[in-house]
Amino acid sequence: MSYSDCLSDLLCGEDSSDIFSGESPECSSDLESHDFVEESSIAGFIEDERNFVPGYDYFSRFQSQSLDASAREQSVAWILKVQACYGFQPLTAYLSVNYLDRFLYSRRLPQTDGWPLQLLSVACLSLAAKMEEPLVPSLLDLQVEGAKYIFEPRTIRRMELLVLGVLDWRLRSITPFSFTGFFACKLDPAGAYTGFLISRATEIILSNIKEASFLEYRPSSIAAAAILCAANDIPNLSLVNPEHAESWCDGLSKDKIISCYRLMQDLVLDDSRRKSTKALLPRLRVTIRARMRSSGSDSSSSSSSSSYKKRKLNNCLWVDDDKGNSE
């Protein structure tokens, strides 16, 4: 059997002349089918996401104060600090909060704040890190960044088992990060700003995760709203109508996306104002100090000049008096 015969057998009946002709194969149908598969997968995520979030009445418990919103905010803030300390992925932080919220919806802690909530926070962060991070700190090393209580590893492991049982071992949650890449491509099909949109949307999602108000929205709505907010930073995309986001995939809710987008936009504006105020305060202090120094130097110079004038005047008067006396 010749080499060409062997090659033709290895090519599974395909014409070898087509393979080595140098012409690009037709792949548009493959790309279209890939897009269809991806969109159907995203639609499946939208359909299943309700199974990975707390119940619809979870936010109302914070409104009625049966759950402590400020205690939750402090726990989430601690999780974000540890995430930044160890350089964990954004998904790790989000999963930690997701586990915490799903647990609090299903089980009531002995008290709404204090050591039980911190123990839960440590356990949720540990589980999320084990899911997503290649290197996970020890349970003792994980309790950093102002942790008020230090728990023994065996205590945390027992809490981890309790969390796993309550969550029915469903740790691979659907999050806003499951949608951001797809939505960014829908908003920017050319791909010129896709990387920025995903990165900026990730920042927006994490910066707002402490707000209990976002518990009203599903991950897909949060992701769409974050991509729309990120688009506001790009002049070419800033005029995109939020109502069009519903067409990105089947199952999206236009009303929820718009409501979440408006809430997110307000918080992003408030955050930017706070940052600009913080950046402006040192300049104001320097300006005020400079003015105080200049005014102080002016007043001292004016007082010194006036005293000098008084001395000169007194001297003159004294001389005049002396002259008068001499006369």
Defining key terms:
327 residues; mainly alpha; Cyclin A, domain 1; 2 domains; 12 helices; 65% helix; 0% strand; disordered N terminus; disordered C terminus; B-like cyclin; Cyclin_N; Cyclins_cyclin-box
Question: What does this protein look like?
Answer:
By secondary structure, this protein is mainly alpha-helical. The chain contains 12 helices and no strands. Helix 5 packs parallel to helix 7, helix 9 packs across helix 10 and helix 10 packs across helix 11. The N terminus and C terminus are likely disordered. This is B-like cyclin. One of its GO terms (biological process) is cell division.
CATH architecture of the largest domain: Orthogonal Bundle
**Structural class based on helices, strands and sheet pairing:** mainly alpha
Helix content: 55-70%
What is the number of beta strands?
0
Q: Main sheet?
A: none
What count of domains describes the coordinates? 2
Give me the Rg, rounded: 33 Å
> Can you give the mean pLDDT?
79
- Roughly how many Å apart are the termini? 144 Å
Low-confidence stretches: 2-34, 303-327
Give the quaternary arrangement of the chains. Answer: single chain
Q: H/E series, N to C?
A: HHHHHHHHHHHH
CATH class of the largest domain: Mainly Alpha
As a percent range, the share of strand residues is under 5%
- Coarse morphology: globular
Number of helices: 12
What is the third-level CATH name, the topology of the largest domain? Cyclin A, domain 1
Domain Cyclin-like: 77-165
Family: Belongs to the cyclin family. Cyclin D subfamily.
Domain Cyclin C-terminal: 174-306
Protein name: B-like cyclin
